[in-house]
Write a structure and sequence with these properties.
The chain has twelve helices and four strands; from the N terminus they run E-E-H-H-H-H-H-H-H-H-H-E-E-H-H-H. The protein has 334 residues and is mainly alpha-helical. The protein has a two-stranded antiparallel ribbon. A two-stranded antiparallel sheet has the order 3-4. Helix 2 (47-62) crosses helix 9 and helix 6 (170-195) runs parallel beside helix 9 (244-255). Bound molecules: zinc ion (2 copies). One zinc ion is lined by residues 208, 261-262, 283, 287.
């Protein structure tokens, strides 16, 4: 594909899409049914449908019997841990292999012209972004994710919490299921703002931001405290009437789904003429500029609180004005 039909490349070779990043027309005023209907298919396709299907397959074909999950025994817990590792290895691994190892589409649609593997840095273990990302994801990320999933399933198997069934509450569970990406984003926004507080940023969140030029392996590369906060959104299933299928969808979207924002390319090519939009640009800008786009715009929280960057020159100007104001405020305090 010719990526310059869809964007521009600067002297360094960094790619910028032409289209500004848009906020979902869900909670924007004036509300428009036409805009909503135009946006709706992209809410599902391809990514959310993929994670819904993944959750369905896991729930239907791999979940141990409720009786087994009533007690916390090593066998089934290890099974879930291995399953999560396998999913990450396969999905993240396939994207990494195609885009970063084999470089099948070169740097077409790639936001940052540089390749993480060619940028050794002291901020990373073994000076390697990939090795550091890998150790953090598999060392603490997936075990903590698994612990949240096990906690939820164990509670369900024992009937602890307001669990329900699709026969009893089909409408509620369908609505809840459809809103999980929104719930995930609001929760992520809140914990994300929290860990950008200077003390927590230095101690916790800077680990994730070391990957200024993220690749799929960067998605879950976090400090363990961030991992603990990151999956804590799944505790909502112990508070609101839920179903194990929704719990798994939520933890999958949080875990496996993180890759979408960190893929580093605006489109993944599917041949000469077609490519799938990643919607990664909003979060790429967060990795590039730090104090913009704490969420991805499904709910316009960044717009409401003045931290939205839509990727355009105007977005740059707004951000620079805000940073200058902040510097002036800090200098005045000295
Ligand atoms: Zn990130
Ligand atoms: Zn951040």
């Amino acid at each position: 594909m010719d990526d310059l039909k869809f964007g521009t490349r600067n002297k360094r070779g960094d790619y910028t899409p032409n289209e500004p990043v848009t906020v979902a027309p869900l909670l924007v005023w004036p509300w428009s049914i036409t805009a909503f209907l135009k946006w709706l298919p992209g809410y599902f396709l391809p990514w959310n449908v993929m994670f819904m299907a993944l959750a369905f397959v896991i729930w239907k074909y791999t979940l141990p019997a409720a009786g087994t999950m009533q007690s916390l025994s090593i066998g089934w817990i290890a099974g879930i841990w291995l399953r999560n590792m396998a999913i990450i290895l396969i999905i993240y691994g396939a994207l990494e292999l195609r885009l970063y190892v084999r470089r099948r589409q070169g740097n077409r649609f790639k936001y940052n012209a540089k390749w993480p593997s060619e940028q050794p840095s002291d901020v990373f273990m073994f000076r390697s972004q990939n090795i550091d990302n890998f150790i953090r994801s598999f060392g603490t990320g997936i075990p903590i994710w698994t612990a949240y999933e096990v906690l939820g399933l164990w509670a369900w198997a024992n009937g602890w919490g307001p669990w329900t069934t699709f026969a009893e509450n089909p409408v509620w569970l369908a609505v809840f299921g459809l809103l999980i990406p929104v719930i995930h984003e609001v929760h992520f926004y809140l914990i994300h703002r929290l860990i950008h507080v200077p003390f927590l940023y230095r101690w916790v969140h800077s680990v994730h931001h070391n990957s200024v030029n993220p690749s799929p392996w960067s998605s879950l590369s976090m400090h363990p405290v961030e991992h603990l906060l990151y999956w804590s959104g799944s505790l909502i299933h112990l508070i609101l009437p839920s179903h194990p299928l929704l719990l798994i969808y939520h933890t999958q979207l949080t875990g496996t789904g993180a890759v979408i924002g960190h893929v580093g390319f605006d489109k993944i090519e599917l041949g000469q003429e077609r490519g799938v939009d990643t919607h990664a640009y909003a979060h790429y800008l967060h990795h590039k500029y730090f104090e913009v786009n704490y969420a991805d715009g499904t709910v316009p929280l960044d717009q409401w609180f003045g931290t939205w960057h839509d990727g355009t020159k105007e977005g740059d100007a707004l951000m620079n004005a805000r940073f200058a104001e902040k510097r002036a405020r800090m200098n005045a305090r000295r």
